[in-house]
Automatic annotation (TrEMBL):
Annotated protein name in UniProt: Solute-binding protein family 5 domain-containing protein
InterPro entries associated with the record: Peptide/Ni-bd, SBP_5, SBP_5_dom
Organism (species): Candidatus Komeilibacteria bacterium RIFCSPLOWO2_02_FULL_48_11
Domain Solute-binding protein family: residue ranges: 145-542
One GO CC term on file: periplasmic space
Signal recorded as keyword: yes
Origin superkingdom: Bacteria
Family per record: Belongs to the bacterial solute-binding protein 5 family.
Example of a GO MF term: peptide transmembrane transporter activity
């Protein structure tokens, strides 16, 4: 009963209060509306910034059109701010290399001397030496000389004195300071016959002195333009090597556990049960005098053959591998590797020994053979993208401003006309087929015979006799050389020249072929070295052993140009001399230049900062290794 009474009383009170409640609500709404209007109206006062509370009520007093315009303007403002923010991010926030990561490379061979005074005879030693030691100057990724330890250098007016100023605060891996005295000690060690350095002959007449801790000078007896390129050898720490007897320098432990000033320092090595070195570990040098290094560790693993090294790459035991294009198409699949094709100062040519075959003494015959040689066909059939056809020995990657000679065309018809003009006539080819058994032994097609052979009437002992136009082509026992030799035989026999291919084992070629100049035409490659100086390969004084003038080229005017070119340090003067020399060389046709091999360098695709394009020797692939990286970081950059 009590609950029912309470309910009835509550209902009665609500009926009585309802009109008053409605009146209060209406009054409250009107009061809030007036307050909203006051807030909005106050926005017109330019003396103060509207509050968020004021802005919330704008929509209640805008028309639909005003609301739409406001929303579009707001959207445009948001997009503009986003674009501005992204632009500022792209402009001032840079992705930079960071320290971290490692790299493992497969190397064919084994190290012996990680010492810049002994490493010249081994590509493996040169590779490791390049990481550990620094030089006064060195080659960059484009094959051009650039300062390394040197801060600057000058050459006097006589072009015989070179003065270098070292960078400040240089350090060895053991923390000791590197000074001009270390440079002087290294050069004096090279000049010491007891040290037995391969660099001895290049520096025996060079005088060196230090003027202070950062200044070192070299004095030559006469100008020699390639001298700067000779200064790319690593500098030894005098405080460690000065106590070692030069007679026993090759036995020093420092040859295998070196201390240098390069981007990476020796950390450890491991050997197998037979004592052979199987692995080298290098760590980044934190006090290196240039950018980086960024990779924390670099490991070299050594293999006895290219097949083993390739297998290690395919199996993932190593990250990278360097290959000369001579391996033709046997390179492993790239997989997660990038293949870097690097230019090498190397060319392969056909060298004519005009004294060994009377036909080759006729310039028309040599020119005909050149016109009958298709470099593009040879490269495409054997090397693909791993070599480049060339027409001259002065390769453009040397950085000299040398005008490219006219391209040697492939014109068998013109070649035939030249042979006709020299009296070499077509005859029936039935009696000149090459030996089938000999072809099989050489790995050549059984039917490698000429469709016809040219013959010429020669007077001997007052009698005329027909002589075949027959040439012996000699080359080294290598798969790619045999393939190239066969292609040349095919091309030359197409114009009626009988070609006999002689294959010589690599172990015999120097002793039995090159030293006695026992060849008519030699298919051979030459590595030019670190300076574009053709003198060792084309000056007449180098025609006999141990010279490298394999064509026995003899032209006094050409000799004079080569002599003048190596006596000047003016690159434009050298370029002009080389251009004139090349014109004479092309006119005389002592050789047919075929191709320049590429160096294929397989690196994992996560390695960034690799800038090498042109190298002077295979170890120069590490010319910018201090800039390689796998880790990155973001930094504000306001410059």
């Amino acid at each position: 009963m009590l609950e029912s009474f309470k309910t009835r009383m509550r209902a009665a009170l609500l009926r009585v209060a309802s009109p008053f409640t409605k009146l209060w609500r209406a009054s409250h709404f009107e009061r809030n509306q007036k307050l909203d209007q006051t807030l909005i109206t106050s926005l017109r006062d330019g003396k103060k910034i509207p509050s968020w509370r004021q802005l919330r009520y704008l929509a209640k007093f805008y028309t639909e059109r005003e609301v739409l315009v406001t929303r579009l303007a707001s959207l445009l403002l948001i997009v503009s701010l986003a674009v501005l923010g992204f632009s500022l991010y792209k402009t001032y926030v840079k992705i930079m290399p960071a320290v971290g990561g490692e790299y493992v490379e497969a190397v064919v061979g084994s190290p012996t001397y990680i010492n810049p005074l002994f490493s010249q005879t081994s590509s493996v030693d040169q590779d490791l030496t390049r990481l550990v030691f620094s030089s006064l100057v060195n080659f960059d990724g484009n094959g051009a000389l650039t300062p390394d330890l040197a801060d600057s250098f000058t050459i006097d007016d006589k072009q015989t004195t070179y003065t270098f100023i070292l960078k400040p605060d240089l350090r060895w891996h053991d923390g000791e300071p590197l000074t001009a005295d270390d440079v002087v000690f290294t050069v004096q060690s090279i000049k010491d016959v007891n040290f037995k350095s391969p660099l001895y002959s290049a520096f025996r007449n060079v005088q060196v002195r230090s003027d202070d801790e950062r200044t070192v000078s070299f004095t030559l007896s006469e100008p020699f333009s390639p001298f700067l390129s000779l200064l790319t050898f690593g500098i030894l720490p005098a405080h460690l090597w000065s106590d070692i007897d030069p007679l026993h320098a090759s036995l020093a432990e420092l040859n295998l556990k070196p201390i240098g000033s390069g981007p990476y320092l020796f950390a450890s090595l491991s050997k197998d049960k037979k004592g052979n070195i199987r692995e080298y570990l290098f760590e980044r040098f934190e006090d290196y005098h240039q950018t980086g290094p960024f990779l924390k560790q670099i490991t070299f693993k050594f293999y006895s053959s290219l097949d083993e090294a390739q297998a290690a790459l395919v199996d993932g035991n190593v990250d990278g591998l360097g290959l000369v294009a001579s391996s033709i198409n046997n390179q492993p699949a790239a997989g997660n590797q990038n293949v870097h094709q690097l230019d090498l100062p190397q060319y392969t040519a056909l060298f004519f020994n005009q004294g060994a075959n009377a036909a080759l003494a006729d310039k028309n015959v040599r020119q005909a053979l050149a016109l009958a040689t298709s470099r593009k066909q040879i490269v495409a059939a054997t090397f693909g993208a791993n070599a480049e056809p060339i027409d001259d020995p002065l390769l453009s990657f040397f950085g000299q401003n040398i005008e490219k000679p006219p391209e040697m065309i492939f014109d068998p018809a013109q070649a035939a006309a030249l042979l006709d003009a020299s009296g070499w006539r077509k005859t029936d080819g039935d009696n000149i087929a090459t030996s089938t058994q000999a072809n099989i032994q050489l790995g050549l097609p059984e039917s490698a015979s000429a469709p016809y052979v040219r013959q010429k009437k020669i007077k001997r002992d007052n009698k005329e006799e027909l002589v075949n136009l027959e040439i012996k082509l000699t080359t080294v026992q290598k798969d790619e050389n045999i393939q190239v030799a066969e292609k040349i035989r095919e091309l030359w026999q197409g114009v009626g020249v009988k070609v006999n291919v002689e294959i010589v084992d690599l172990s015999r070629v120097q002793r039995d072929v090159i030293k006695p100049r026992a060849y008519e035409v030699l298919l051979f490659g030459q590595i030019l070295g670190r300076d574009p100086d053709p003198y060792p390969f084309w000056h007449s004084s180098q025609a006999n052993d141990p010279g490298l003038n394999l064509a026995l080229y003899n032209n006094k005017e050409a000799d004079k140009l080569l002599e003048e070119a190596r006596r000047t340090t003016d690159p434009d003067k050298r370029a002009r001399d080389y251009l004139e020399f090349e014109k004479k060389l092309n006119a005389d046709i002592p050789a047919i230049f075929l191709y320049s091999l590429k160096y294929s360098y397989l690196l994992p695709n996560n390695i960034q900062g690799v800038k090498a394009v042109k190298i002077n020797q295979t170890s120069d692939r590490f010319s910018t290794i201090n800039e390689w990286y796998v880790k990155t970081q973001k930094r504000l950059h306001f410059r």
